[in-house]
Amino acid sequence: MIRVNRGQPPDGFNVRSTALRRKFLAARRHDPDISASKFWASVRHSLRADANELSRRCYHKCAYCESHMRHVSYPHIEHYRPKGQRRFERLMFVWDNWLLSCGVCNDEKWTEFPQINGQPALLDPAVDVPEQHFGFRRNIIFELSDRGKATIQLVCSIRRDDKTVSCGDMSETGKPSDSPRTRRGRRHKAENCHTGGEPS
Ligand SMILES: [Zn+2]
After folding, report:
1. pLDDT of residue 156
2. Is residue 56 part of a domain?
3. What's the structural domain count of the chain?
4. Would you say residue 136 lies in a domain?
5. Nearest partner of 182 among 112, 86, 88, 81, judged by Cα
């Protein structure tokens, strides 16, 4: 996980996001069953420039596993508070809820957003200081806090020899196990969160 400073929204972002929020509410009125993810998939192309800027400000690296986008997958606009939960749908077009992530981390996180003592279990790389919650022994990550532990289990992945290994799925021997979360993450393809192509 890397510290992210996404800065202020790009020029015109608030106008675009407000229009999209209104469009989503209208779509929901027309079809009460339409999901945020389905709506997102239908409009994400209009956010390509904003996705490019987000990618640039995140150094084109996944905020969770630090993989460079060009090496692992299409970049995804990751919603820190997942739009797949109804209570967070209103944050779908909020700049401060966006992170850049690879498809693997996005798949692993999916729509989970647990709490620990009233605060998000998942570390926010734009707010929290990762070094206070993680340590490394060689290339094995270990937790320094309950939130660090939860983050490892939710999303924090490391990559070895071009294979993705979820730290939360590591056995004591260092071999990855195929946890229910990982299997589920592979089944669900992040509900079309990706930006639809690599930002140029
Ligand atoms: Zn990642």
Report:
1. 60
2. yes
3. 1
4. yes
5. 112
* 26 Cα to the center of ligand 1, angstroms: 33
Relative orientation angle of helices 36-43 and 13-30, to the nearest 10 degrees? 130
Mean pLDDT by 10 residues, the chain (200 residues): 90 96 97 95 92 91 84 76 94 96 79 89 92 86 91 66 35 33 38 34
Domain extent for 117: 13-192
Query: pLDDT digit string (tens) for 139-171?
Result: 788 899 999 999 888 876 544 333 333 333 332
Instruction: Note the pLDDT of residue 73.
Output: 61
**C-alpha to C-alpha distance for 74 and 143, rounded to whole angstroms:** 28
- Contact yes or no for 115/121 (Cβ under 8 A): yes
Assigned domain for 6 exists: no
CA of 13 to the centre of ligand 1 (A): 25
Ligand 1 centroid–CA 29 distance in Å is 35
Give the tens place of pLDDT for each residue, 26-41.
999 999 999 999 999 9
Cα-to-centroid distance, 62 and ligand 1 (Å) = 5
Kind of pairing between the strands at 119-120 and 115-116:
antiparallel
Count how many residues are written for the chain: 200
- Distance in Å, CA 47 to ligand 1 centroid: 21
pLDDT at position 65 is 84
Q: What is the pTM of this model?
A: 0.76
Distance from Cα 157 to the centre of ligand 1, integer Å: 6
Residue 5 lies in a domain: no
Q: Which residues surround ligand 1, an ion (CB under 5 A)?
A: 62, 64-65, 102, 105
- Measured in Å, residue 23 CA sits from the centre of ligand 1 at 30
